[in-house]
Write a structure and sequence with these properties.
globular, alpha/beta, Pantoate--beta-alanine Ligase, Chain: A,domain 2, 38% helix, Rossmann fold, six-stranded parallel beta sheet, three-stranded antiparallel beta sheet
Length: 278
């Protein structure tokens, strides 16, 4: 696996692969990698494809009171994981490369970013859309792979790619989970032993709720039950909501695809999860 920190070197490597007829796949990450990220690498690996993974802890998607300074950084361990997973190139841009002096452009995506994490974390999705746009211009991939755990992020990226005619196929990869159902996340390492045991209430509450909604039970009552279950486990809730799976509008119209989404804090750790509703 190549490890590249200079933009000119990145473009030269990709140009060489293009000359050989290779397809380019991108897996953007913020590092602190786990099995969920490896599932993205595995999904991206296809015959004739070169896989590029990026690691960049993006300051523009963290709010002033969020965990930018303590977000886990473990470059050497991440590089070993990517190499073992069959990644072809690790792109490690600096903050100065991504946001040089005078940088003044922000990508903002209305609609899908208005609710849920968009409301709870103002400016977060502007930071996501901006950095992903930059990565697309730097790597020029044919396809990019994102986990469905960050479902609203995936919806935001799909929206701006469609709106701006960006020639990149966006591939969503199902959420990877621990044996007890907790969604894999780089932030899970913040949970102490007691918090980790209680955190499983999040996927369990969503599972109970999605089955109840699927049976036709009243949505408001089901969501209230889910909130009570989470609070009983020790969570402080940001939101538990049913949304249109494509537009992320709350209270989806009959017949539309639906997604149940939740964000809640266990101690100092904010966890998110989502499940489809049939």
């Amino acid at each position: 696996m190549l490890t590249v920190r200079d933009l000119n070197d990145l473009r030269a490597s990709i140009a060489g692969w293009r000359a050989e007829g290779a397809r380019i796949a991108l897996v953007p990450t913020m590092g602190a990698l786990h099995a969920g990220h490896m599932a993205l690498i595995e999904a991206a690996r296809r015959p004739g494809t070169r896989v590029v993974a990026s690691i960049f802890v993006n300051p523009k998607q963290f709010g002033p009171n969020e965990d930018l300074s303590r977000y886990p950084r473990r470059e050497a361990a991440d590089a070993r994981m990517l190499n073992e997973a069959g990644c072809d190139l690790l792109w490690l841009p600096s903050v100065e490369t991504m946001y040089p002096a005078g940088f003044a452009t922000t990508i903002s995506v209305a609609g899908v970013s208005d609710h849920f994490d968009g409301a709870a974390r103002p400016g977060h999705f502007d930071g996501v859309a901006t950095v992903v746009t930059k990565l697309f211009h730097q790597v020029a991939p044919d396809a990019a792979y994102f986990g469905e755990k960050d479902y609203q992020q995936l919806a935001v990226i799909r929206r701006f790619v469609a709106d701006l005619n960006v020639p990149v196929e966006i591939v969503g990869v199902p959420t990877q989970r621990e044996d007890d159902g907790l969604a894999l996340s780089s932030r899970n390492i913040y949970l102490d032993e007691t918090e980790r045991a209680r955190a499983v209430a999040l996927p369990r509450a969503l599972g109970v709720a999605t089955r109840a909604i699927g049976r036709g039970e009243p949505v408001d009552s089901v969501l209230d039950d889910a909130r009570r279950a989470l609070e009983a486990a020790g969570f402080v809730i940001d939101y538990v909501a049913l949304a249109d799976a494509e537009t992320l509008e709350p209270d989806p119209a009959p017949g539309r695809p639906r997604r149940l989404l939740a964000a809640a804090r266990m101690g100092q750790t904010r966890l998110i999860d989502n499940v489809p509703v049939e």
